[in-house]
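Lab channel / #folding
Pinned by the channel admin:
"Please post every new chain as: sequence first, then the structure tokens as a reply. Keep commentary short and put observations after the output so the thread stays searchable."

First post following the new format, from NK:
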Amino acid sequence: MGFCSNPEGWGPISPLYYNFTPCFVDSVFPLFLGLGLLILAPRELKALNKSALVFAPTTTWFYIKFGLVVLIGITEFIYLVDFRTLAGTWADLRIWSILAYITSLGVAAYIQYVEYFRARVPSGIILFYWLISALVGFAKLFGQVQRRTWRNSQSIFATSAITVAATVVQFLISVLVLRPASQYESLHSEIETSPENRANVFSKLTFSYLTNLMKLGYDNYLTEDDLPDLPPHSRTEKAREDFDVAWQAEKQSSSPSLFRALFRCFGSTYLIGMCFKLAGDFMSFMQPNLLRRLLVFVNSYNDDEPVPLSAGVLLAMGMFGCSFMQTMSQQQYLQRVFSAAMNIKSAMTSCIYRKSMFLSNDSRQAKSTGDIVNLMTVDVARLQEMTQSAQALWSGPFQIVLCLYNLHFLVGNCMWAGVAVTMCTISLNAYISKKQRALQKVQMKVKDKRTRLTGEILVSIKSIKLFGWENSFIDRLNKIRNDQELANLRRKGIYSAIANFVGSCAPFFVSCSTFALFVWTSDKPLSTDIVFPALTLFNLLSTPLTQIPQVITQYAEASVSTGRLRDFLISTELQHDAVTHLDPATETDQTAVSIKNATFLWDALGRHPPALRDVNFEVKTAQLACVVGRVGAGKSALLQALLGDLYRKSGGVTVRGHVAYCSQVPWIMNATVKENILFGKRFHADFYEETIRACALVEDFAVLPDGDETIVGEKGISLSGGQKARLSLARAVYTRADVYILDDPLSAVDQHVGRHLIDNVLGPQGLLATKTKIMATNAISVLAQADSITMLRQGEVIETGLYATVMGRTNSEIFKLIDEFGNQRQGEAVEEKAEEKADPLASGSGSDEEETDDESDFYDGKFGARLRRASTASFKKPTLFDDIPNRRSKQIAEHAEKGQVKFSVYKEYIKAANIHVVFLFLILMIGSNSMSVGGNVWLKHWSDVNTQYGGNPDIGKYLGFYLLFGVVAAVLTLLYTLVLWIFCTIEAARKLHDMMLRHVIRSPMSFFDTTPLGRVINRFTTDVNRVDEVLARVFTNFFTNTFKVLFSVFVISSANPAFVVFIVPIAFLYNYYQKFYLRTSRELKRLESVSRSPIYAHFQESLNGVSTVRAYSQIRRFNRTNEYHIDFNNKAYYPSMIARRWLAIRLEMLGSAIIFLAALLSVLTIATGRLSSGLVGLTMSYAFQITTALSAIVRMTVEVEISTVSVERILEYCNIPTEAAEVIENSRPPVNWPADGAVEFHDYSTRYRAGLDLVLKGINLRIKPKEKIGIVGRTGAGKSSLTLALFRMIEPVGGYISIDRLNTSKIGLQDLRQRLAIIPQDSQAFEGLVRENLDPAHRYSDDELWHALKLSHLSEHISKMNGGLSALVNEGGSNFSVGQRQLMSLARALLTPSKILVLDEATAAVDVETDQIIQETIRKEFKDRTILTIAHRLNTIIDSDRIVVLAAGKVIEFDTPQKLLENKSSMFYSLCKNGGLVD
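Reply from TO:
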């Protein structure tokens, strides 16, 4: 033979020994191994040299490794010398191959030496080098044993044995023994704890680096501290930065494609996964060929010359090897595509958040908060799912082609019958996909609508409860949920069932048509060596044919989501040059803020009337500029223009320096009071104390449960309106900005508190004396302190001027306003000179601090020393759980069950789905699987008969029965899928959502005080979506794979009873791995669920306060917080995903062992003649299926638990405590109750929730019918608590309230609340029609609605809107001003025919003129009603019949205003004096 003198030739398989030939094993393997390392070595050395050189002490193992390399080199050299002597020539290629290998040993030793001082993780190339060397050495040694080489040369055999032993030891040391870490590496490992970064190549291939976490999860319940860090390539910041680059490049094209941008960013990982997928597909299609050879081997025992038994053993080993390689390739592919999908989810979530921070007004109106949350929760999830399975779009057709190619080899042109069936299947799937895509578009729109309404209900829950509108909103939401969303989901379920039916029966019809054509057209018998390889191919074909319709469905859903995400990412943003930002003004008379000839629009297209027209406005340094005007005049719009929130059509806006902003509705974070004030700035104790004193917060801190460490709840729900306003002002003051934009900060505070704020913050001696202040206000008292006053009317400046100038013009509008409504204190200094103003900020803020603020979007490094700002604190990572023990105000941590999902959860879900229908589903599924197995057994019998006869007898009988089995199985599949979707899933989804909705809406306010809105939204989006669409698919897959394994084990055991012996150890290992995995994976999934809520909660909070976040230049900090939340969620998701791979490797190895045992037992038993080739074929075809089914069962077990966790979470909210009954049938009040309106408090005490102090203590009041009662007191005295108690928003802990002598605690809440009227402090408007906002229950006629609007002075504005009563109200009433929303609340009260009216700061947000008109309306329209009024403006309650003065939750004064004012020691007199009402 050329280049090799051995008579067995090049092989590679020897026909004598069924092993590699000596020529092949001694030349090809060593040559490729040696040359391979020599080629790859430069690349590896280059990579190592990029790492830092570290001092690493040499150990004994270091010298052992190099000693082994020397030993291997010596033995190989001796082998070479002996071989050269035997061969007698240098022309033998084996000699040069050995020389190449010896050379590569030197290179390997050098790489190991360099690696020792530059990397702790062993080189993958070197590890594979030693592994392959060991395997080649084993193959060579095994061949030498078979050929008894020691007879010719003992030294060759001995050196081979020594080389193998030394190579194995070298490999084990390289894998298992790590060198000790240097000091630098030890420090770095403490910082970087991702186990993946410290794993070698084999640990990564088998995912063994996760074993420590799996052990920890098995022994203990995992907590957030146990989660390892993400590897650097999987962190949100990296993914988002990469996507940003790709998306910016894509946006340059005429039609930007989100898909192209994602592929450009994450395509490399995806393509590597594609290579692994390709290898796995090839391996899977090797099995039918090996099976055909095995059946030929079995049939040879029916002949006179059977093939040696070693050939059968080799085939069994080949099957094991193919299965093993397929498993390794498949899991590496899945790991990469799931990582890419996670990175896409992270990048898209972060980009959605960032984009939403800069949306223009028109984009913001088009996309409500609920819509954007849906983009995050649903659309990104669809894209993630599609990424995980999209490879099936090419892999499926590729597998079909491979399958058909192999079928052509087996049955020739008869396979075209199968091709025809396949093409019909694909066409039908395309049609189904088209229908599903259309339904998915509808589904997403309806889901958006439901999520939006759910969000609004939760945001406005306090108002809904006060008005008694719970049932109206439940009915409105259920109409969307049941009549639209679930009806559409039912149609989707029908098409999914049809798609599943087509996918499951397609392989059968392919096989049936192919076999039918074969037996009718071919003279060859349909023998076992054709049937079972073909059957295996058909089973393989079922995977792509089942996957393709599912993936096409996912593609249809993902394409809709991709379009929605793309549209959002290219939606218009705020005008970047709307405001010109310059360095801070440093001179006294320098202009700090100016607007010149500017017109501002609500949106760039000008679809609405201009917000402001031809505005000229100028404020100089250190001035206080007040903006006044009636409700809707454009005061807030002017401030928004200065912030850059409006579109500037013409003119120019200039702002010098940093900005601080107080919105009209204070935006409060769900954090501590202190964190709200600091707002990302560094803590300076002295100035902090000065700030809280100036903002009148000292007394509040004394009564708050934890002082300034009190967690205030979402939107500051645990604070009063005045406390929120002062907290917002304190945040602005502490920032020490250059320009302060204040939107009516005094409207929510009491009059005496307002005077305190004017004196200590806004006035000439206040903390902001040297700062530029622009304030929209309805408070006349502050105008005396103003340097300039601007009046707006219908979006235009009608007058402006200095205070002194304006007061000198008796015909001016501003003079008339002040003269008519002003009540100034005598002796106030009107004229102020800037040079007289002290600069407390420059001295009190710590003059030695360095400016380290890197958060600024516009002004880095541009601030003078005199106007120094607060420096930025280091970024503090938010925590999942409150880490301060014994905090009384802490929010309740999201509940997460531990351990296995309780059986009661499954029981509740089955009850919701209808237990009888569930049993029907199981019976149909068992019947379908039984028919499928029966068809295969019949096919085995048919092929055995054909093999025995050498032809195809009784074609009609055998084919007919085979067809019958298949058709019945397919029909049963269709039936159980339809039953599952239509009768189980949708029914359960409807009941669970309805139960959760009713319990959440009817839960007490304490639930909303302690539960972030994002957490509740998460239940109504992610968890409901999982119950709607995921559970059915998961349960189907679980039961399908379970029955597949059970039937497979039964078939294999029936054919080979000896297999039963191996079932016990295999079952033990399977159970061990399953428990090991389940415990850890379950807790990881729960942590993932819990850590998902903060993402949405933070997102909702950011959207609500986006103007404030932008104004303070805090976008970057909030972006980092968002990305931290995403990363924390991924810290639970990523190990969960790796854990699935960890499990699959191990269980599929068990499956490979089952294949090997089934094949080996068949080979060893065949000589007895007990097994026919048909039985062997049937056994192996089921053994091939069991590999993936085993891991699928465990995976689906976890998926079932994970999905059922969503049911568990929904049921948790179905069991939260609710308020008292809405209606108590045997205790209903009379129809005309309350007829008089007498209210009495009988020794009444209450608290907001258990564990907190009493807010009302022993209240005793007797209010007569039709009496007008004013309620006053300092902030936190209990004024609003009194009204909440009247409506039973908080329940008594002592005493009771009676109305018309009826104890209100004895009647239903609906009967109580709908018989009382209130204008609440927080005015709410809901997305929908004006009519629905006034009368959601549709009780009143249009005339009655217009009359109420007229009396509330809104009719003119509503009539100008397009549609009148049918005009649209945007989300949260954003197209109405705050004052207009309060007027809408007045209209609601006018519609309520109650004898009792409660006014809780009812006119706080309206101007004084409108306030006077409203007061007159109230006096006229409500003259025959009992009125309880809480007001900051004391002049609005001074004419009340009696005044209640509260302090610390107690009534300290209760008398007529005249008597209280006569007593100059009374608190009421003190309040009036502080407010300027008395001298």
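NK: The radius of gyration is 40 Å.
TO: also worth noting, The chain has a mean pLDDT of 83.
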